[in-house]
Amino acid sequence: MYKISMVSLGCPKNQVDAEMMLATLKAEGFEICPEEAEADAIIINTCGFIEDAKKEAIENILEAAQYKKNGKCKAVVVTGCLAERYRDDVTEEIPEVDACVGIGSNEKIAEIVKNAIEGNTENSFGEKDALPLSGERILGGYPFSTYLKIADGCNNCCTYCAIPKIRGKLRSRTIEDCVEEARKLAFRGVKELVVVAQDTTAYGEDLYGKPMLAELLKRLCEIEGLVWIRTLYTYPDRITDELLETIASEEKLVKYLDIPLQHVNGDILKRMNRKGDYESLCALIERIRKMVPEITLRTTLITGFPGETEEQFEEMAEFVKYNRFDRLGCFTYSAEEDTIAAEYPDQIDEQTKIDRMDNIMELQLTIAAEKNEEKSGKETLVLVEGWDDYIKCYFGRTPADAPEVDGKIFFMADRQLKIGDFVKVRINDCIDYDLLGELI
Questions:
Q1: 149: which of 16, 44, 202, 337 fits an S-S bond (Cβ 3.0–4.6 Å)?
Q2: Which residues contact 58 (CB under 8 A, 6 or more apart)?
Q3: What is the pLDDT of residues 209-244, one digit of tens each?
Q4: Superfamily assignment of 379-439 in CATH?
Q5: What fold characterizes domain 145-374?
């Protein structure tokens, strides 16, 4: 029996693909091994979205190659977006890699890994739409919180984004398929379900002729055992009154919405092949907060997009000050091969991009601290995630915190708690993005 270790990088969608590949490998008789030093083969499930992600992938591939050089590892296999995007270039540029597997060949992963271990290396690239959208998974991370990927691919074709070239066009799962998987996950003990896709608000357009996210969320709320359901990656143009009414009325839907705006200047958004401008996006935020008063809003922004003037950047900064998002991430623009924006002549220098990003994040740190201070003395439900042995207290997340991307709450308790339980905590203080409290 061969032992397999996997490192999965990048977004939650990629994590779900990794979990499905691990289930395929286990079903074919492989032993899943957490320790790379003990593995016969190491799989690096890569992200290839932006330059930093590619660098991280290459670093992990080279680290895995050291186990092949100095340990028992016989094969390094590369899967995921970097493999799909650069294909044969991966094995040509990094000869330590024994097999490169595109997303359309994920179902063949067991055969490919076995062959690689036995010295019969090959690259495999099936059609993008051969990527399985559903199947058995070996869950990583916490057993009580996981992701539900409802679609793959994207039709938005933003000029800075390579995802449609990597992942192909939008492919939604049926409502029944999504609900069936969610039921199985709840039966396995999952209490928090995080709904993801490249654009969750486009879900269903290809199958049903119209967006069906609101309908899907209503069906998910009927599942016994699920306590929290949250949605990430909602596209601003597709946030309908029906969706907001659903979030407001369904108890299991946490009052949380992730809206990657990327920019707010109308001219920059047009060059991004996105819609909207400062006024329309302010109106959207106002409408969301009016319809769902307790909503926590998260967004992401890009600084240094080609042609971004100082005035256009200042408009973004003013937007951040005015709308006071609860959660905000900011990234510098990355010129990606085979994207329209990479060919724009008016590229911005790296230092200007970084300075502008730092400016936005400084603004957000102040806003986040002020918002957290306003929570002092209030009570909140908390999902217990673990015990911090260094500061001797429990930690977890509130409904306002998505896994991996948001902050945590650290709290004292006068009794032993079970990981994965929900408890009531009184907020006493904050440190930057994190809260401090005590069990009620």
A1: 16
A2: 94
A3: 999 999 999 999 999 999 999 999 999 999 999 999
A4: Nucleic acid-binding proteins (2.40.50.140)
A5: pyruvate-formate lyase- activating enzyme (3.80.30)
**CB environment 62-93: b (16+ within 10 A), e (fewer):** eebbebbeeeebbbbbbbbbbbbbbbeebbee
Q: CA 379, CA 426: separation in Å to the nearest integer?
A: 4
pLDDT in tens, 281-306: 999 999 999 999 999 999 999 999 99
Mention every residue, 6+ apart, whose C-beta is less than 8 A from residue 198.
Answer: 13, 151, 152, 153, 154, 156, 163, 167, 170, 233
Q: What are the residue boundaries of the structural domains of the chain, listed by start? A: 3-130, 145-374, 379-439
CATH class of 3-130: alpha beta
Give the type of residue at 127: E
pLDDT at 90: 85
Domains 3-130 and 379-439 share a fold: no
Kindly report, residue by residue over 380-404, the tens digit of the pLDDT.
Answer: 999 999 999 888 999 999 999 999 8
Only one residue has tokens 């042609």, namely 307
